[in-house]
Amino acid sequence: MQIKRIHLDVFRAPAEKPVVTSFGRIPSRAVALLRLEDADGAVGWGDIWGNFPTVTTEYRANLAAFVLPELLLGQTVTDVPGFYRSLVAKLRVLALQADEPGPVASVLAATDQALWDLAARKAGQPLRKLLDGGDEPIELGFGDGAVRLVRPGQVFWFRLLDGEFPDYKAVLPSGTKHRAVVQREAFADALGRIGILAQDRTRAVRFSFGETDLQIAVHNVDRGEGREEITVELDGEPLEMGFNVRYLLEILGVLTAEHIQLEMTHNLGPCLLKQVDDETAFFVVMPMRLD
Known about the structure:
By secondary structure, the chain is α+β, with helices and mostly antiparallel strands. About 30% of the residues lie in helices and about 40% in strands.
């Protein structure tokens, strides 16, 4: 993957009740997000950690904007751990001379996250599968508002979110009128092939559910057209919907059953995916308009 674009955003919101700690007062919450885009239009995201003082978030985003373009733009990354180690070596002098080991480390960590996220999206796999290296021990640590995951040669930081968990039941489809059962591996293989052509920002793909077959089609002005057909068992009337193919591939990457069931109400309503005869987990995907 060749890095073509770097984008940085800072979001800040006032805290309803300022957080008072032993080291100071935090009147707002902020996050700096790093987005890397490769030459094919695929993107990966990273979080530049910064908590205190409140100005550090904008400062670290500016630091990333200062150091990353020269290090990343035009670079072809095939080995994320190796490339990350090279970045650490290149920024070691800056961290020492500027006496800024913390901000530099947060920029490096966000870059590492974004590169792995980009690699996983390019591979059409969930990040956990891409990182699966066998039986190496993993160290998990919890701190003030963050989680650290350490494995041989890799360190990840994750921000913990404040607030109530969203009411996911509000988006669950009710009154299902269409149920489709497909073979998981055949479905994933077909989506993987179609996904090669669905490389624009929407990655919209047309799904035509028939009584016994599911036709999956994509049209890309620059890359051409693609069409796949797999066997399906449909309970209900034939239906045509549009989905982001990457969302479906990420879900299929964590499922293990031989068959997957899709439940739909209408072509613009949410779609519920789950393993046949397994109610322990389900996934909701919103459709896309097909114009």
